[in-house]
Amino acid sequence: METRLILGSMKVGALAEVLVILLLGWPPAIGHVLVLGLLALAIILTFRITFGHVLLVADYVRQLFAENGPSAEESKRRQASPFLGLRPKYSHYMGGGKEASAQAKPAPKKRQVQQDDDIPLNEQETVPLEDDLGGEYEDEEAEDPLNDINVHKQEVGLVPRGRRVPKQLDPEEHAQAVQGASQHELPFDEQVALKFPRKAPKKVSEMESLAPNPRLPGQPKARAASQPAQVIVSSWKLPDTALLNNPDEVKLQLLGDDTTSLAKTIQDTLRSFRVDAEVRPEDISIGPTVIRFGIRPTGKPEMKMDEKTHKMMPVRDSTGNIVYETRTRVSRIMALQNDLALVLEAKAIRMEAPVPGRPYVGVEIPNKNSRLVTLREVLESKEYQGMKAKSKLAIALGRDVAGKPRVGDLARMPHLLIAGATGAGKSVAINTIIASILTQATPDDVRLLMVDPKMVELSMYNGIPHLLSPVVTEVDKVVPLLKRGITEMEQRYRLFSQLGVRNLDGYRKMRLEKLAKGDTSLNNLPAIVIIIDELADLMMAAPEEVEGMICRLAQLARATGIHLVIATQRPSVDVITGLIKANIPTRISFMVSSAVDSRTIIDMGGAERLLGRGDMLYLPADAGRPERIQGAFLADEEAEALVHYWRQQIIERAIAIGEIANPAEAENKPQVEPGWEISEQPAEEFELDDELLDKAEEVVREYGRASISLLQRRLRIGYSRAARLIDLLEEHGIIGSAEGGGRSREVLDGSSDDGFDDGELHTLADEAVDIMADQQRNEFLRQQAEAIKRQKPAQNPPHEDIS
Ligand SMILES: Nc1ncnc2c1ncn2[C@@H]1O[C@H](COP(=O)(O)OP(=O)(O)OP(=O)(O)O)[C@@H](O)[C@H]1O
Q1: Looking at per-residue confidence, does 460 or 147 come out higher?
Q2: pLDDT tens profile 549-581
Q3: Pairing relation of β-strands 350-352 and 361-366?
Q4: Which of 62, 91, 527, 535 would you label with 547, given CA atoms 20 to 30 Å apart?
């Protein structure tokens, strides 16, 4: 074609003639440009020439030229720096001694500031150094003879140079140095004896021999024989777990067709939404109530040509995993929660991203072959046995999504908050906690206090020796009970500080040591577990008091071995307040009705997707994410069997010491630990509460009248307590007596704003009067504040604030 274009009509072949036809009408130059341009394009595309290649070639050509002779710029760059070999002018150590530093003094105090390369150095601006380094700083240090560096310099100067002869050992000096020290005979004893005959030790083996290694067979026995027994044998006998129901023989269905097809459904659904992910068989966990599938986000794999097969294969890393060019985002998988629930036809699914410690997103769906987790199987598991050996407060929780038994230690929790909707399994959980304690701890180890405002859940435990006082069912008795707990805590604190021990463990250790020496001065202090089955009822009766006491107990009781287990079915912020939450770090959430409730309990959503009937999220104090567990189940008859077992022991003991003649007497006798009697009349307890009486007096004086509802609102206390305070105020002559027909009582020393009296009845009219009085008072205060504001600018200096 080129020939045809250049030479015009010359025959160059049929193909060239055909190809060149289109270009013949144009000037030959256009034809050349087009043809050469097409050729260049073909070369670029065929050889995949990029701009990088062009730059590479350009660089190479530039270097070729450069080798012939460096450019002016290059030679300038290669010149030696004018500062090469110069020390910084303000260095401490420039020059030799003081004279040198004195000579050099003017120089170090100036610093050259290079502003422009073109300006000669001597013309550049100089800045005095004192400004930056703080005046006389250098000279002071250089001249100070006690300065560490100067002392060291002098000492270094004294060290002789060259090889030195090793110093001879002075036997006298050596003998003095090792005087009083005793050690095992050394293997080179004979040589020592030869060299220092006077100092050869006659008998040096005074060191105590090492304790035998308990891991070697036969050694523990020898040790046990040589030491006093460190365990106090309790006179109580623990029950056998055989008392409890036998675990169901139902076997878990392992990786049958069901899970395989479900895994395939999940993977197909993800693919249909263009989400690259895989569900591997090893990532499927089958638990008692849920099955968890692990979805691993994959992506577009990086491909390379296989040398043997000449096919494109995915690149694998050193561990054999596929390397992905782009990965699927976890959030894209999470967004498909409802779509997955739809295709799986599941009642409720819960997704967890990522499952802690695993490289996948967990999808939990209900297990159609769900089964009961019995308390006995968890109590007999090796996990529980291990925990039991460490702590007397080991509790059985249930089984996790992989079917592994899960246990906890109440001593380390150290308090537990349980919440969940009604019927979700709170009471069963509390019963399993109590049963765990009853099966492994004697009353010498652990004592219990129980509050059951619902009156039906815990009353059956009355009469067991672990109870410090009978189960409290009246709300009014809870405050005295908690107060008694706080008193106990304070007593223990005082005792511990007198003995110089830090906590209950330290106390127990000290007691064992004393007992080994025959000193029985220290009493046994059992751990105390306070169980409250419905917090909401208590918080409604006296929110401030109950909250304050729970927080006080929660903050300080850990060291003294007092633990709280609190349950509520109303996980709202007025029941589980911020303060209570902050002080009770370990939480269990059963199914709740909304994500808001879930967040109130475990600080995140998820509990609203639980299945109920013991399905729970367990959040230990030290974990960031909750763990899903199917709670252990304890049937009523099992709990009764345990209670019967312990009651029987009490009866046997009482008969043995002649306290009672027949078992029937014991059944009727409530067991109360001396000092733990909770007063039937809560008023007696309140009477001692001078602090609140003072506050009540302040309130009635401030308002100029007294009523129960006023005290209830102002002091945030319950009705009965407010009523009792009104009685006390009357007894102390602060308010007038009830005189029928009125609503508020007269305050005797203050002014009464109305003529009404008598406030025993808590009526709506009573409330209305209080509200109106409140409004009047607020209006008065507002007017006062405005009056002060108006006066302020006019006066100088301003008046003191009246409020
Ligand atoms: N761990 C469990 N395993 C199997 N079923 C359970 C479990 N826990 C509870 N259930 C079932 O749920 C029912 C209700 O449990 P529970 O009485 O403990 O609920 P609750 O939360 O205490 O309710 P409420 O607040 O009304 O007292 C039980 O009767 C039992 O059938």
Answers
A1: 460
A2: 888 888 877 788 899 999 998 888 888 888 888
A3: antiparallel
A4: 527
Instruction: Copy the structure tokens of residue 225.
Output: 């024989």
Listed by start position, the domains of the chain span: 2-77, 84-134, 257-366, 375-648, 682-794
Residues 451 and 481 sit within 8 Å (Cβ to Cβ): yes
pLDDT tens track for 143-152: 566 666 766 6
Has 326 been labeled as part of a binding site? no
Q: Please give the model's pTM, rounded to 2 decimal places.
A: 0.57
Q: Could you tell me the CA-to-CA distances from 164 to 152, 159, 174, 474, 475 in Å, in that order?
A: 20, 10, 21, 91, 89
**How many whole angstroms separate alpha carbon 571 and alpha carbon 600?**
6
Helix/strand/coil percent split, the chain, to 5: 45, 15, 40
Six-digit token string for 415: 């308090």
CATH code for the domain defined by 682-794: 1.10.10.10
ipTM of the complex: 0.96
What letter would DSSP give residue 800? P
Indicate the CATH number for domain 375-648: 3.40.50.300
| Mean pLDDT computed over 155-172 | 74
The pLDDT, as a whole number, for residue 55 is: 92
User: Ligand 1 centre and the CA of 541: distance in Å?
Assistant: 26
Buried b (16+ CB within 10 A) or exposed e, 109-135: bebeeeeeeeeeeeeeeeeebeeeeee
Mutate to test the pocket of ligand 1, among 610, 613, 616, 637 (most ligand atoms within 8 A of CB): 613
Is residue 22 pLDDT above 90, yes or no?
no
Confidence of residue 631 (pLDDT cuts 50, 70, 90): very high
Q: Which residues contact 358 (CB under 8 A, 6 or more apart)?
A: 283, 294
Closest by CA position to 142, among listed 134, 132, 153, 131: 153
- Residue 669 labeled ligand binder: no
Q: Name the more confident of 16 and 442.
A: 442
Q: Is the pLDDT of residue 365 over 70?
A: yes
Q: How many other CB atoms sit within 10 Å of the CB of residue 232?
A: 13
Categorize the per-residue pLDDT at 794 as very low, low, confident or very high, splitting at 50, 70 and 90. very low
Residues 172, 279: Cα–Cα separation, whole Å: 80
CA distance 763 to 744: 11
Ligand 1 binding pocket mutation candidate from 245, 427, 433, 537 (most atoms within 8 A of CB): 427
DSSP string, 34-93: HHHHHHHHHHHHHHT--HHHHHHHHHHHHHHHHHHS--HHHHHHHSPPTTTTPPPTT-TT
SS3 at position 451: strand
What is the distance in A from the centroid of ligand 1 to the CA of 742? 49
- DSSP at 236: S
Q: What is the pLDDT of residue 438?
A: 92
Give the burial class of 605: count Cβ atoms within 10 A of its Cβ; 0-12 exposed, 13-18 middle, 19 or more buried: middle
Separation of alpha carbons 392 and 718, rounded Å: 37
Query: Would you tell me the crossing angle of helices 426-440 and 636-656 to the nearest 10 degrees?
Result: 40
Mean pLDDT across the chain: 75
DSSP 303: E
Is 424 annotated in some ligand binding site? yes
Please name the fold of domain 257-366: Threonyl-tRNA Synthetase; Chain A, domain 2 (3.30.980)
| Residue 668 in this model has a pLDDT that exceeds 90 | no
Which residues does residue 327 pair with via DSSP β-bridges, in sequence order?
Answer: 299
Nearest ligand 1 atom to alpha carbon 630: 1
